[in-house]
Each structure stands twice: as C-alpha cells, then as structure tokens.
Amino acid sequence: MTELRAVVEAAGKIFFKHFDASNAEERIYVGLGTGKTVSRFLEDISKSETLKGQEMRIFPTSSDTLLLILNLKLNAVVENLLSLGQSRLGFHIDGYDTVITRGEDKYVALIKGGGGALTLEKLVLSHCEAGKACFIGVSSKKRSAGDGKGVVSIPLEILPEAMAGVQRSLELRKMQVTLRASSGGKAGPVVTDNGLWLLDAQMSFDESTDWITIEQDLQAIPGVLCCGIFAESCREREAVVLVGEEDGSVSRLCSHNI
C-alpha cells in the first residue's frame, strides 16, 4: 500500500528529527498508540541504525502494542503509566480511524477507538510536549467537514453497569447506538484492557459542528470513561496529522483551532 508506506516513512523522519543519535546517554520518552499504522511504524524504526546506543522509554497504550514491542526486541524499557506525570513525552505516535478536515491543511477532529484503546491513548497524549504528537493514516480515512452532512461512528468506553443509562443519553442526542460485539471465539461484548465495554454511536455532522463541545458533552455522561473524539486534546497538544495520499505523497494537517 503506497500511501501507508509513505506516511510511515514521513512519521519516521519526524521521529528521528527530535533526537540526536550521537548522544548515547539520551533517554527517549515515547508514547505509542495502538493499531496497524503504529505497528508498521514500530516495525520500521526497529530496523533503523539511528537508535543504536539509545534506550527508548516507552509508554504503550494497549496490551497489543506491548506485545509488539516485546516481539520486535526493541532496545526499550516499558514504563508503567503511573509514572507518566514525572516527565513530558518527547514524542507520541498514533493512528486514527477518521480525520475530519476543514480546507486543504486543517483538521477539526480525529475519531479514534477502533482498537478499543481510546482511554489510554487520550491519557498518554495529554502528557506529550506541545507540537510533538503525530497521528498517521491514509486518505481513505479522511472526511471533509465542508461536504455537507456526513455521518461518523463515535466509540465510547463505558462501565458495563452504566450501559442502559448511557444508551438512553446518547439516543436523546439523536445518536444510533450499538454495543460492540466480539468476533471470533468469544461470545458477548468486546472487553477492553480496562475491563470495560465499548459503544459505537453514530452521529451526523456538518461544517458547523462544534467538535470540542461534543467531546466535552459526551465525556460528561455518567458512566462514560472516554469518548473517541480527539478535538480538544489534539488542539491542546498542537498535534500534527499526516495523511498518506493515493499517489504516494503525504499531506500535513494542523488543528483548525490552533
């Protein structure tokens, strides 16, 4: 896939630009999201000679990412998330399910949570230094806020006991709600690394949609641990979004709210 290869290479260049490879004493604090694009990024940097002599301190956001780190035998120390507040992350890399764009070079929101790790992804992002968070994906996941009305699915991680109340609150907001079910061998709902359930709520949007207000509103529903809209959080961290295009080029988007 040309666009995926291009965007992963572009993210790698940004990553290596932040660190001096000649300084063997430097510790690299990195936040890692979850998903296929992050996996591809990790596989690429694991082959690089640039990191030789440097030890990364990694904050993974899921058991999947942790297992990948171990399988790749990276020269890395996996940090406990309890120690997040002791230092700012020098880099955070993650993917997205959908990016809502405005104009040619701006985005208004990212939608995340397809892999079920949205809560820890938002937590780790909040500890990244401003301007050093990078989200990567491909053009097929890009949606324009200026194309009239659209529909997008918003993941929410919820307490199982709050299922009925959260569903009722979302339906009052004119959202269609589905409990995410497991596929494969396990019956019943998807259970996250936090032991919680996932709802997917479909909502309509247009160019007037206030994504930050919606993010705050959904987060405030009792029983919701995390909402999969990343608007306010990305604006605060001045996150950059890289989009791999079909022709192999890479578009760079910054937050419309900055």
Verbal overview:
By secondary structure, the protein is an alpha/beta fold. The strands form two sheets. Strands 1, 2, 3, 4, 5, 6, 7, 8, 13, 14 and 15 form an eleven-stranded mixed beta sheet that branches. Helix 1 crosses helix 2 and helix 2 (36-46) packs parallel to helix 3. The chain contains seven helices and 15 strands. The protein has helices spanning 2-17, 36-46, 63-72, 118-125, 163-172, 211-219, 232-236, and strands at 27-32, 55-60, 76-78, 91-95, 98-102, 106-111, 133-138, 142-144, 150-158, 176-179, 197-205, 224-227, 229-230, 240-244, 250-255. It has two domains: 2-139 and 230-245, 3-Layer(aba) Sandwich (Rossmann fold), CATH 3.40.50; 150-226, 2-Layer Sandwich (Alpha-Beta Plaits). Helices cover 27% and strands 31% of the residues.
Task: Please summarize what this structure is.
The chain has seven helices and 15 strands. By secondary structure, it is an alpha/beta fold.
Any idea how many domains?
A: 2
**Number of beta-strand segments:** 15
Mean of all residue-level pLDDT scores? 89
The helix-strand sequence is HEHEHEEEEHEEEHEEHEEHEE
CATH second-level architecture of the largest domain: 3-Layer(aba) Sandwich
Number of separate helices: 7
**Low-confidence spans: pLDDT under 50, at least 5 residues?**
none
Strand % is 25-35%
C-alpha end-to-end distance: 32 Å
Helix/strand class: alpha/beta
Overall, the morphology is globular
C-alpha Rg, in Å?
18 Å
Query: Would you give the CATH topology of the largest domain?
Result: Rossmann fold
